[in-house]
UniProtKB/TrEMBL annotation, chain B:
The lineage of its organism: Bacteria, Pseudomonadati, Bacteroidota, Cytophagia, Cytophagales. Keywords: Hydrolase, Signal. Gene3D superfamilies: alpha/beta hydrolase. It comes from Aquirufa echingensis. Residues 1-18 form the signal peptide. It holds the Pfam family Esterase. This is Alpha/beta hydrolase-fold protein. It comes from the Bacteria. InterPro entries: AB_hydrolase_fold, Esterase-like, Siderophore_Hydrolase_D. GO terms for molecular function: hydrolase activity. Belongs to the esterase D family.
Amino acid sequence: MHTDEINLTSAINHRTYKISVALPTTYTKEKKYPVFYLLDGYYAFPIAKEAMKALKMGNLVHDFILVSIAGDEKTDYEWLVKRWTDYTFTYRARKDSTFSNMWNIKSPGLVSGGGETFYQIIKNEIIPMIDSKYSTNNERGISGHSLSGLYVANLLFKRDGLFTKFGINSPSFLFWDNDIFQAEANYGQTNLNAKVFFSIAELEDGLDNLLKFEAGLKKYQGFNSTFVLFKDETHNSVGPAMISRTMRVLYSNKN
Amino acid sequence: MKKLLFLGILFLSQSLYAQFPLTKDLTAKYDLTSTFNKTKYTLEVSLPVSYDASKKYPVYYILDGYYAAAIAHGAHRTLQFENLIEDVIVVTISGPEKTTSEWLINRWPDYTFSKDTLNDVIYAKVFHLPEGSTVSGKGDLFLQTLTQQIFPLIENKYGFNGNRGISGHSLGGYLVADLMFKAPEMFNRFGINSSSQRLHLNNEIRSKEKNYAATHKEFNGKVFLSFGSLEPKDAIEDLRYFDNQLKSHYKNIETKFVEFADETHGSVMPAMLSTCMWYLYKKN
């Protein structure tokens, strides 16, 4: 399997993102491939690229290009700080200070609310770069877990059709004051062209809330979803199973 | 402080990760050539986040590094985010393969102790491999490589506390089941996942287990057994039978059998690698 690692320094926020790419083993420029963007690449990419290989081995998915997005973090601490900014659309000063104190994050501490800026980076910098380097079509998916699951849920309501497949896994809805419901209320459309994979682990909170969110989307034309509850898994232990199943459902070769 | 952090996170039970001093540099890679079967092996290692060279740790070996390495070391990290497992050194073992066909050919001799010509021929056909490329029955050479080259390399380099685990999937699961009775003192943690054991030599593993049970009433080990629920029913039931035999024959053995919902033989790998590691090294 061919993989590339590309460092992209954003002209928008001047931060460096590490973009990791895994191509299908039969990749050829003669074909055009859908692209699956995966957040939290910091820990998720190694798992995802091998899960993609295993899914292909079992002939369970069709070909797609895997692209994970990470920051330039070297430690869990740095990762935690960076994702806090990028994966939140709303600014929550109080949460920033509470968790900066709790986790002993040095000044300026956690700063939430960078989600829209990060979206502009994805849209105007990362996607164009990927589309220029690889043979891609216009079908894009995006997936995240926890805070990045919340992020992906927000992208459902972007109205620009940039993404049509979404992986929303153990999203931090409750943790972020359930403001995702407000984002949905503001959407104001009757159509939502989205294939969504929802998942949550049995040993964490938020199942009812996530089911409620999913149910609220069923009124939209064009929306379809799969919901999986992973038995005997916690918020974090679910990582490998969740990454694999997201790809298997969103890129199933059965449809 | 760390404990407080975890409590905070557990209360929220959503979303965030605790901070750890982990850097990606807590991994290492070693190449070696076996003096027994001349095969080149690659070992990939991930250390616990709080690794301290003056301390001693159990070592957990995982077969089929070809596909398992990145997932296993990734799962090693995700399980530590929440402090779910005890400190353990994880080592994946892979051969020199670059493609899936090469991998299938390379693992065939290594993961089988007995020669099984019928299966060799059948599986070369099933996997579309060249005739005669799958040659079973060289497990002893792999075992010598493991004990005389791989163990010393890892266990002298890192603080090792004398406790080893091993896990495998499919043919690798069969090897692990075999090792339980061939070298019962070598490991005390075993992962037997989607094992192909029933397919080999009329399920000879059953008689190996039975012979062992005739002279042993105890087995000092913790065993994780699993299958994907979409795998053949007879395979799942066969392993469940094996699990029941273990529980009924050895009074001190600890086992857990998991059937992963909606997973196939291949798709189960990420979930299986993570859950197996979690059970075998669960923090009490």
